[in-house]
Each structure stands twice: as structure tokens, then as C-alpha cells.
Amino acid sequence: MALPLKALFASLLAIASTLSDLRVANAAVAHHRSSSWRHAAHHVAGNRMHYHHPRRAHAHSGNHHSPAKHNRPKFAPGPWKQAHATFYEGGSGTFGGACGYQDVVQQGYGYQTTAVSTAMFNNGQTCGACYEVKCVDNPQWCQLGQPSLFVTATDLCPPNYNLPSDNGGWCNSPREHFDLAKPVFTTLAKDYTAGIVPVQYRRVPCRKQGGVRFTITGNPYFNLVLVSNVGGAGEVVSVQVKGDKVPWTTMRRNWGQKWETNAMLVGQSLTFRVRASDGRFTTAWHVAPPNWQFGQTFEGKNFK
């Protein structure tokens, strides 16, 4: 009898151990589910929208394409560099030319804008970047003691290879050059007759009022979206769009900060995800309602 009793005792111990493991495993699963839902609820609550979509929480928690959050630091000012600045004539409807901003005043940039040389323009990616600029090393023409000028890149200063780079061809590569909107040039220089002044500049975070704006134009078969009023790094390097029926779709840069897709988006609530040049992203969940129309502008969460 001794051997069977030992075997029975060992079996009872094994069963008890198994039941204990099952209780621990079930508790861990319950905790994970509870944590996941708390995280999803917090994440959804932290992305407020102008348009309430009844499927918002479901769409968000079920999204398998959300980029991982790496807690990237906020965009910080860059090093000081040397360049020169001139000015060019125009108005609010022309100072945003090569970036597609149409009217820089209506878009919230004001006249504190600049065209940048080809070496800085980066095929349109620099559109929206912000700079601190100050006049230096020229007491004759610099407004000494004046505060720095803060401007947003909204246009391209094209090269003129018919002229020398140091005498008229100011925007020829590889020169880094600012062609400022005329109304703000005298913030740096004493007078327009200065023509060109030496400056120091650095990239700085863009501080914008309100959220990132999405202006939708085109037609049902071709969507063209202008992304503007971007804070933080200011430069947009990628845009994605998602509809109720259309999965996440990467848009292509058409020109400046205008992004295109042939996806059929009409009649669907739209979500946009914008990634900046510093790797940070912001998602405007269901920012456009299903009855959106071409020509409308919608505002989502901005970079802080």
C-alpha cells in the first residue's frame, strides 16, 4: 500500500500546482486586458476632435497601424549659421507660392515669411520650417539692438545662374539665403536701399495658434490636401489618410505641402496622420465628417 499512497499523494500535489498556475495566468490576463482598455480609453480621450464619430473608440482601439510612441523630445533650436538676406515684392497671396499656401495671412503665417534658396528648400520639405534671423556685422545697414526676426519658410527663391553667386545670383546653389517678404525686411535692415545684409540664423520650433489644418481640394478621383499651420519642427515629411472604408493610405507629396492620393474618400469620415522631420507625429482622428466637401478646411491636433 505504501507505493500507491505515495503515487496518489504526488498526483494530488501536481493537480494543486496546476490549479495555482491557472489562477495566476488568469489573473495576469485579466490585468493585461484591464491595462489595455485603460490605455485605449486614455488615448482616445486625449485626442479630442471637432466632429464626434460614433465608431471612434472602436476604430482607434482596433488600429494595428498606429506608430509606436518613443516619447521623442520636443523640437529644439538648432545651431547658428551664417547667410545673407534680401527681400522681394508681393502680397499675402503670393508669398506662399512654391509651398502652396495660397494666402499666408489667411493661413495664419502673417507677413513673417521668407523664400529660401534651393539649397535650403529641399524639394518642398522645408515648407513650414521656422527660423530665427538677425542682422549682423554691418553697422551701416543693420538695425542694431533690434530683436530677432522669426519667419516661416513659405516660398522658394529660385537660382539665377546668369549672375554670379556673390552679385545678384544670391539664391544660386550651394548658397543658403533668405529672400524675405518685403514688409518684414526693415525689421533687420535700416532701409530697403540696403538691398542685402549679412545674417545669422537658426532653426527654431514653430509656435502656431490652433491646430494643424487640412484643406481638401480636387475631385472624387483625385484628392489634393494642403497641410498647414504645423507647429514643432514645422516640416512635414509624410502624410497618411484613413477613411471609414479605406485603410491607412500613404499620400504622395505633389508640391510644397500639398499631398495627393487617388483613394476614393468621398462620403467617409477622414483621419489624417502627419509625421514631422523630427520623427514626431500627430493624428487628427475623424477630423472631417462624412459629408465633407472639396474646398473645406479642417483643424486637428497640433504638435506642442
TrEMBL record:
<keyword id="KW-0134">Cell wall</keyword>
<dbReference type="GO" id="GO:0009653">
    <property type="term" value="P:anatomical structure morphogenesis"/>
</dbReference>
<dbReference type="InterPro" id="IPR036749">
    <property type="entry name" value="Expansin_CBD_sf"/>
</dbReference>
<dbReference type="GO" id="GO:0071555">
    <property type="term" value="P:cell wall organization"/>
</dbReference>
<keyword id="KW-0964">Secreted</keyword>
<keyword id="KW-0472">Membrane</keyword>
<feature type="domain" description="Expansin-like CBD">
    <location>
        <begin position="221"/>
        <end position="300"/>
    </location>
</feature>
<dbReference type="InterPro" id="IPR007117">
    <property type="entry name" value="Expansin_CBD"/>
</dbReference>
<keyword id="KW-0961">Cell wall biogenesis/degradation</keyword>
<protein>
    <recommendedName>
        <fullName>Expansin</fullName>
    </recommendedName>
</protein>
<feature type="compositionally biased region" description="Basic residues">
    <location>
        <begin position="55"/>
        <end position="73"/>
    </location>
</feature>
<keyword id="KW-0732">Signal</keyword>
<dbReference type="InterPro" id="IPR007112">
    <property type="entry name" value="Expansin/allergen_DPBB_dom"/>
</dbReference>
<dbReference type="GO" id="GO:0016020">
    <property type="term" value="C:membrane"/>
</dbReference>
<dbReference type="InterPro" id="IPR007118">
    <property type="entry name" value="Expan_Lol_pI"/>
</dbReference>
<dbReference type="Pfam" id="PF03330">
    <property type="entry name" value="DPBB_1"/>
</dbReference>
<dbReference type="Pfam" id="PF01357">
    <property type="entry name" value="Expansin_C"/>
</dbReference>
<dbReference type="InterPro" id="IPR009009">
    <property type="entry name" value="RlpA-like_DPBB"/>
</dbReference>
<dbReference type="InterPro" id="IPR002963">
    <property type="entry name" value="Expansin"/>
</dbReference>
<dbReference type="InterPro" id="IPR036908">
    <property type="entry name" value="RlpA-like_sf"/>
</dbReference>
<feature type="region of interest" description="Disordered">
    <location>
        <begin position="55"/>
        <end position="76"/>
    </location>
</feature>
<feature type="signal peptide">
    <location>
        <begin position="1"/>
        <end position="20"/>
    </location>
</feature>
<comment type="function">
    <text>Causes loosening and extension of plant cell walls by disrupting non-covalent bonding between cellulose microfibrils and matrix glucans. No enzymatic activity has been found.</text>
</comment>
<feature type="domain" description="Expansin-like EG45">
    <location>
        <begin position="96"/>
        <end position="211"/>
    </location>
</feature>
<comment type="similarity">
    <text>Belongs to the expansin family. Expansin A subfamily.</text>
</comment>
